[in-house]
């Protein structure tokens, strides 16, 4: 990471085959300079966004682009996970082709992970590939989903079952956009930041601990560093494993339980980050069994500072176990867990017994009972 | 090209970034050995095919696979260009996910270019990429569309507007499958073979001239060589330009007029190959203007041997010119032509005047008048 003249923080994703693209943390007003810098030709560009983001930030993006000679055309989709569908993908195809694009027309994905995944997939497949610029507007999208080239949509049979690996030409994250995020979305993002710290960056973990109250309240002066450092973990993983054949799986820390919690509770009751936070507690418990030297209390207590209000009613272990097995069937043959051997060091294992899983979940329930004081 | 122990002819596509895959001309019964050879694990596999191919050849493919321990599941779609649609893509998604696949489940595209493009795109996007095996069953698919990784579907606004570059793990072409092709499909394929000879292989051109009557009647003993040699031209071009940034455009020899002819005549009146054959005559005329040493009569006379019965009624120059300009708008900024400087040597130019285009079309109309004797 280094600071450049545009007063932004920059990473670079450099893939083994030579492809590379910058990841910038900076103000939206400098985006057009970056579009020039990566070699896009000013002219038409397509913005895909959702209603919430459009209401709050589209005018700024549009005028910023127009001031530099771009001709943006915005497509505004409904907000929410249901938008990651074939129906809305088809809507992007229709709008883009009706408006008129050629292979050099950039597509800007301006929104959270939903828009990033959906519009990224549209960019991957329109005219067999348009230049994609990710302009993430949620904390999850800025530190995680906009980076790494996983794009796609959901299918009735499961999440993210259709998609492509397609790298953007640029990821551009403006931290000030996050100030309008609803509280729960912010919390959900912080859970992912903690995850990145746990699996890959002990310093980031210490930074979070040291400044927790300030970060929790989104003090603007700490956001760029927070975001840039959390991004760096994702960048490192992606560079080593673009296609998720191995290492990339560590990004799923907390996700085996997390997905099961989302599924059993019914999508929407917990945010993704909330479910992952609970899942991380379980994964930490399992890790601690194997690695007693892990600073277990310290790690758990940061997670427990996340304000997660939803009760865990109905999340029985047997329902969760069923849900994990369903999850498993669609993707691989064995149930795999990401565990920590130390703060900042994760690995994948399939050697976890049902008994241990049950004990881990018991631990989560107890922690919660203590935390909410019931 | 070299002969291997399986008594088949083999090319290899070796892309600059290290990816490589074999292209085999051989009997279907040896396909399972090749699936082993490229490292696929026997188990479930998904076959996507169309009604015509299924009626004629699916039993053979299925029993061949089952004999080697595969568990094939076939999805049979309607035949025809309309099948290259989002609707049928979605049908493949539903069937594959309902049946149960994981990231290692191979998808076999068993059909002509329509199935190859559609099923290839499905393979590119299911679980972000399944192993794809192209088993082409038309001459066009064997020498052209199954090779090179262009996959996709049509959109109401134009052909092939949605898709992905996605390379197969194996292309496996059985020449005997071609014996059941309808006559016009065979002719259409021969037009593409002539195209490959013109743009890239003077020896193949001489081979076609020397054995035309036998080839035209599909004598089984010449087919493997014909196919392997025509494939080689495509392989060479693709290896040098996977993403169609330059050289790959020479595969569009005859296509600027060809597409316009298809569009003006209404899709279906001419097969793609028939339209390209007429377009090649125009392109040869333009080439000859610039390169008088080109053996113009010789080159035209092979094309004129293709039995193309459709009259050219209604194909006025002004309608064709309009159609060329429509085609242009969707993809690039200037109307480009592929011309020959010598037999086997093609290049791209945008320096062709309207007057020349008109004269070229006049030449085609005259040739046709002579050929059909009116
Ligand atoms: N591609 C990947 O590698 C990857 C990684 C993690 C998650 N994801 C995907 O990301 C999605 C979740 O992402 P998300 O949490 O960003 O969801 P999201 O896109 O639905 O955004 C959450 C909510 O915040 C709103 N919003 C976005 N930006 C805002 C802003 N600046 N101010 C106010 N409101 C704003 C949105 O309209 C939405 O209502 C899931 O679909 C998940 O599968 C993908
Ligand atoms: N991806 C590429 O690089 C590329 C290149 C050229 C063409 N294409 C695409 O290929 C398509 C045209 O391919 P095509 O000409 O093979 O069309 P096709 O797939 O429609 O096949 C033509 C007809 O032959 C039938 N058929 C196929 N195999 C048969 C067999 N062995 N016996 C009897 N009948 C058989 C089919 O059912 C169909 O009716 C177009 O959609 C075109 O865009 C793609």
Notes on the structure:
The structure is a homodimer of 374-residue chains. Chain A is an alpha/beta fold and 374 residues long. Chain A has helices spanning 31-37, 51-67, 86-99, 113-125, 139-145, 183-200, 202-210, 212-216, 223-240, 255-265, 272-290, 296-304, 317-331, 354-372; strands at residues 2-3, 9-14, 20-25, 44-50, 71-77, 107-111, 132-136, 150-155, 158-165, 170-173, 337-342, 345-349. In chain A, the strands form 3 sheets. Chain A has an 8-stranded mixed sheet with strand order 1-2-3-10-7-6-4-5, with helices on both faces. In chain A, helix 4 (113-125) links the parallel strand 6 (107-111) and strand 7. Chain A is globular. The model of chain A is unreliable at 1-6 (pLDDT under 50). Chains A and B meet through helix 3, helix 4, strand 8, strand 9 and helix 13 of A and helix 3, helix 4, strand 8, strand 9 and helix 13 of B. The structure holds nicotinamide-adenine-dinucleotide (2 copies). One nicotinamide-adenine-dinucleotide binds next to helix 2, helix 4, helix 5, strand 9 and helix 6 of chain B.
Number of domains of chain A: 2
Question: What percentage of the residues of chain A does DSSP assign to strands (E)?
Answer: 15-25%
Any idea what the shape of chain A is?
globular
Unreliable segments of 5+ consecutive residues of chain A: 1-6
* Strand order, largest beta sheet of chain A: 1-2-3-10-7-6-4-5
Radius of gyration of chain A: 20 Å
**Which chains have the largest interface?**
A-B, 35 and 35 residues
**What is the structural class of chain A?**
alpha/beta
Q: What is the name of the CATH class of the largest domain in chain A?
A: Mainly Alpha
The CATH topology assignment of the largest domain in chain A is: Dehydroquinate synthase-like, alpha domain
CATH architecture of the largest domain in chain A: Up-down Bundle
Q: In total, how many beta strands of chain A? A: 12
- The helix-strand sequence of chain A is EEEHEHEHEHEHEEEHHHHHHHHEEH
